[in-house]
């Protein structure tokens, strides 16, 4: 079986090196083609036949690979090596590398949805979420802080997540309201919000468990938002989350398949890609069952 092993060596704690990854899959009898996503031109591997793909990395690596795998109907699984690993945790992809290598041949397949964002400048594909407001601003600010303090390589994933939740709580105290008008299928949502997220996965951002019962295979998104009068409740929720108390988040939700951003005056993120200004009109729609996810059977 020809297995493409897509590896982000800089993900998380950098616990697994390339040589060990290749050896484990080769010893399990796989014909391994190792691809580091940090090198330019990694996409050239898709010129060759691939039976299975393993994504060894975090949410950013999964998001980067998802449209390529969907376009070529290549079944894949995730070896979570990142900081948040929201996609892997939502999809139940938490097996260690030894288990994946030994059971790749017998894995079943589960269909998983993707999302597409159509903007005036083109299209973007996402697997985790699209959001406007506070969480998009958090991504901007955390990247600035990590670059300024050169802290990314010095902190563990647990420390980075805890720091992100702490900073999100601080940011939420004075973050300005976002005036938005969206059309959720045929329902208009308008008002002033702290944030709005169009979610395909249940975990978002720094492991915020906003939608515990999400089904990324149901052909629909969960749209979650927080009104401005819930600012204090949300900050209390973040405080409890940092203290290890996982309570139900103070959110509103609506399920839909298509979202039109008609008017937005806030930054937007599409998975980990951030746009300081949201182009409108922007349309988000679901691609049901676009991905073939490998389910490892022990």
* N-to-C SSE string, H for helix and E for strand: EHEEHEHHEEEHHEEEEEHEEEEE
Mean pLDDT: 92
Q: Tell me roughly what share of residues is in helical segments.
A: 25-40%
Q: At the first level of CATH, what is the class of the largest domain?
A: Mainly Beta
How many helix segments? 7
Low-confidence stretches: none
CATH topology of the largest domain: Tumour Suppressor Smad4
What characteristic shape results from the CA principal axes? Answer: globular
Strand runs, count? 17
Q: Measured on Cα atoms, how large is the radius of gyration?
A: 19 Å
Distance between the termini: 19 Å
In the CATH hierarchy, the architecture of the largest domain is: Sandwich
What structural category arises from helix and sheet content? Answer: alpha+beta
Query: In what range is the share of β-strand residues?
Result: 35-45%
Largest sheet: 11 strands, antiparallel
State the domain count. Answer: 2
């Amino acid at each position: 079986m020809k297995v493409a092993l897509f590896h982000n060596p800089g993900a998380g704690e950098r616990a697994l090196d390339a040589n060990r990854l290749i050896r484990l899959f080769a010893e399990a009898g796989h014909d391994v083609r190792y691809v580091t996503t940090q090198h330019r031109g990694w996409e050239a591997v898709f010129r060759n036949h691939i039976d299975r793909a393993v994504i060894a990395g975090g949410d950013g690596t999964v998001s980067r690979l998802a449209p390529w795998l969907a376009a070529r109907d290549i079944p894949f699984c995730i070896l979570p090596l990142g900081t948040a690993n929201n996609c892997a945790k939502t999809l139940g992809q938490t097996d260690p590398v030894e288990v994946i290598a030994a059971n790749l041949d017998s894995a079943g397949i589960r269909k998983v949805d993707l999302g597409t964002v159509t903007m005036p400048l083109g299209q973007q594909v996402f697997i985790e979420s699209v959001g406007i407001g506070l969480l998009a601003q958090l991504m901007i600010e955390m990247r600035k802080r990590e670059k300024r303090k050169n802290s990314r390589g010095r902190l563990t994933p647990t420390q980075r997540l805890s720091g992100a939740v702490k900073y999100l709580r601080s940011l939420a105290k004075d973050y300005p309201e976002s005036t938005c008008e969206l059309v959720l299928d045929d329902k208009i949502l308008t008002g002033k919000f702290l944030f709005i997220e169009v979610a395909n996965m249940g975990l978002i951002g720094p492991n915020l468990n906003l939608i515990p019962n999400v089904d990324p295979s149901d052909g629909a998104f969960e749209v979650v938002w927080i009104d401005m009068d819930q600012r204090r409740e949300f900050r209390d929720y973040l405080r409890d989350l940092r203290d290890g108390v996982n309570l139900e988040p103070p959110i509103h939700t609506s399920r839909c398949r298509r979202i039109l951003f008609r008017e937005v005056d806030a930054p937007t993120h599409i998975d980990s890609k951030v746009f300081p200004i949201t182009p409108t009109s922007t349309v988000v729609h679901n691609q049901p069952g676009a991905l073939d996810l490998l389910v490892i059977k022990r």
